Amino acid sequence: MVRFDRAAQPERSFMVKRSCLLVALLVAFGSVRLAAGADVEWPALETQLQADAVVPGSALERFIAAHQDFSGLREGEAEDRLGIPLWLRVAWRKAHPETVGSAADPTGGYPPVLRQVYAWMRTHQDLLPGAPESDEGPDRLAAVTGEMRISGAPGAPRSASDVRVNPRDPLKILAASDNVTGGGAQAQFHSADGGASWSQTTLPLQPGDAFHSDPAVDWTSDGTAWATTIGVDAGGTLFRMRAYKSVNGGATWTFDATFSGAQTNVDKPALWVDHSDTSPFKDNVYALWVNGAPAFINRRTGPAGSWQTPLQVSGAETAGTAIGGDVTTNAFGDVFGFWPATVGRKIFAVKSTNGGTSFGTPVQVATTFDSYDIGVPAFNQRRALLRISAAAWRTAGKNLAYAAWTDLTGTAGCNAPAHEPGGDAASACKTRIWFARSADGGATWSPAVMVNHQASLNDQFNPALLVDEATGALALVYYDTVGDPGRTQTHLWYQASFNDGLTWLPAVQVTSAATDETTAGADAGNQYGDANGLSGISGVFFPTWTDRRGGGFEEIWTAKITDPACTPPGAPAIGTASAIAANQIQLTWGNGAPAASAFHVERAVGTCAAPGAFTRIAGPVAGSPFLDTTVSGGTTYAYRVVGVDASGRCESPVSGCAQATATGTCTRPPAFAGLTSATSAATATCGVSLAWSAATAVCAGPVSYNVYRSTT
Fold first, then answer.
1. Is the CB of residue 388 less than 8 Å from the CB of residue 462?
2. Are residues 22 and 103 in the same domain?
């Protein structure tokens, strides 16, 4: 029995306003049944109403009161971290009895879009669509850095965005974002002058839809603009995939189709158009999404064609929910679909060679450490979705596919969901952007690597990956809290690879001002949203991201990134490493093809068969040979060389390895871990007791110690 204890309520006036309604509700809903066998006290109705600041007498109040039978929920749902209220879960279960929720699945069996439903209901308590928003003309608020707010004058929070440059007319750019707590209809942004100015409008709501969620946009070669979204009903239980098109560059939009068929449990759509003039399936429009647990892909056969029947592409290999996928194509028309498995903690990919008519067996791309979403100090309410961003590139000599995602580092104490930092800025666990590549068209995948693994305590999330369809260069953007000890202030960062993802150039900061989604006034239900956007062609890229630098409503921003492709040199041909004198090793090598203009030398302690970590010890150097005068006698060193082009931006693959054992005096310091403790001596006189583990001599002993003390 759930008790409504009026005496315990401090807000007497609030209680009086509800008294008539509560008398009626106590008769109908006074007994809230518990899940069978569960010893748990569910929150009282009054507690739920107060928690969401529900207006007395509103449609939302009636909706919440009508969904108080918690008997169908699991016991643990009273205290989980999904961010979906219990009453909305009851409504969802009632509308979707076919859905099976498992405690082992971090989604709990609920689509993440229910968080947007929750946000929309709290800001539209009449449960009616918001008033239509007026279109806005060009916004010329660009800063000298090229950054620009494209979402116009802020009137409501905007989060989760997508962007697409028209590859045949790069002056035309589309973008879109969620607009859940505003008018509800998906916000659409368009530029006709290469991003110098932007205008905005919204998609028209279809009958039965109260708002939209999860934006995606693209272009076909005839100049038609395409947008997809989830159409959500006012009850928050019917989700359908809607497609729209524009024939005037995104200025106005008309409804195209519901491409999810009869499905009503859809979420996290991804959209891609085959742009290649050499593809037999040019202008096919592809969409990937999840319906309940499995992933589906559908295709539209060009601007003059139509949407086909959705195909389920995930199966028994995917333990849990296939939420957070992506779809892309290459120049030959091959279609790739990607998704993670929330229970199995794996990433899978499928491929079609017939324009999406059918797909092969899913192939495992990688194993993840966390699953579904990850709490970090900057993003601990909405949480960072483990979502895949994918790309593909194929020429006569290459057949590449790529995937990027957010995950834990995988180091000890940071390799399981229980280790994620959550709100703890001092946690040694942190998130990084991971990347995997396939050199055989998706048949096999290289081990995943972290693109930018800094030593500091910072978190990276929301990656957007792109292959430049003109050059094959890779571009990547993501949020990073690096530089903020509190791990809450983010900047957007950009990285590029010009050698097919083998190596990445250093990260470049895109934003000139930080965003903090943990301060007062932030849209706590959405924060950054689940996705950033990135698009471009021929070395000019436009990311889109959620920005709150002004401390008000969340906005959608972009910037122009110019990063023309370069040609990576060929790997240098390693020569020999020789101890030519005491404490001196000489390294030789030959130039690769294409030839490098300069070289970097890398060294590790150990043999080539079992080296330690390689570090860069010299460069750029003009050429071979290189004399290393910093070696310690008796130590074996392994060497390798990297070539760079004239710009210094494009690096070659690493060379082979050469090793040598140095002669001369041993100069390496002892191996010492440092102090283990500093405690009060607990004596009558002031003193501090220091403790440490003994150092291990690398050269001949004995080992002695110097103790240093700060004077400040």
1. no
2. yes
499 and 471 Cβ atoms separated by less than 8 Å: no
pLDDT of residue 15: 33
Residue 639 lies in a domain: yes
The DSSP bridge partners found for residue 496 are: 475
CB half-sphere exposure, 327, CA atoms < 13 A: 30
- Encoded tokens for 476: 């990547």
Question: How far, in Å, CA of 345 to CA of 405, rounded?
Answer: 13
| CA pair distance 235, 128, nearest whole angstrom | 10
Q: Is residue 583 domain-shared with residue 604, that is, in the same domain?
A: yes
Considering Cα of 285, then 172, then 562, then 510, what sign does the dihedral take? negative
In the chain (712 residues long), the average pLDDT of successive 10-residue segments reads: 30 33 33 46 92 92 94 87 92 88 86 92 89 58 61 85 97 96 94 95 97 97 98 96 98 98 97 97 98 97 97 97 98 98 97 98 98 96 96 97 98 96 97 98 97 96 98 96 97 94 92 96 92 96 96 95 88 97 97 96 96 92 96 96 88 94 93 87 82 89 86 72
User: What is the sign of the dihedral through the CA atoms of 56, 57, 63 and 67?
Assistant: positive
Tell me, yes or no, whether 631 and 698 share the same domain: no
For 685, residues 6+ apart whose C-beta sits below 8 A from its C-beta are none
Kindly report the average pLDDT of the chain as a whole number. 90
Cα separations in angstroms, 331 against 94, 170, 282, 400: 46, 19, 9, 11
Query: What is the distance between the alpha carbons of residues 9 and 29, in angstroms, rounded to a whole number?
Result: 19
Whether residues 642 and 679 fall in one domain: no
The pLDDT of residue 141: 27
Say if residue 222 is exposed, middle or buried (CB neighbours under 10 Å; 0-12, 13-18, 19+): exposed
Last residue of a domain, one of 55, 86, 110: 110
Global model pTM greater than 0.85: no
* 113 closest CA partner among 254, 324, 259: 324
Examine the domain organization and report whether 682 and 653 are in the same domain. no
Asked if residue 701 and residue 617 are part of one domain, the reply reads no
User: Contact 488/378 with Cβ under 8 angstroms?
Assistant: yes
Domain residues for the domain of 617 are 573-661
DSSP state of 326: E
Within a 13 Å sphere around the CA of 115, how many CA atoms are in the beta-carbon half? 23
8 A C-beta contact, residue 151 and residue 555: yes
Residues 642 and 600 in one domain: yes
Q: What's the CA gap between 411 and 360, in Å, rounded?
A: 34
CA atoms within 13 A on the CB side of 587: 32
**603 and 694 part of one domain:** no
Q: Which of 110, 130, 152 is the last residue of a domain?
A: 110
Residue 24, domain member (yes or no)? yes
Helix (H, G, I), strand (E, B) or coil at 50: helix
184 in Cβ contact with 124 (< 8 Å)? yes
Q: Is 265 within a domain?
A: no
Q: What does the alpha-carbon distance between residue 47 and residue 418 come to, in Å, rounded to a whole number?
A: 29
Looking at the structure of the chain, the number of domains it has is 3
Q: List b or e across 350-373, with b for residues whose CB sees 16 or more CB atoms inside 10 angstroms.
A: bbbbebbeebeebbebbebbbbbb
pLDDT for res 701: 75
Task: Please check whether residue 579 lies inside any domain of the structure.
Answer: yes
| CATH of residue 637 | 2.60.40.10
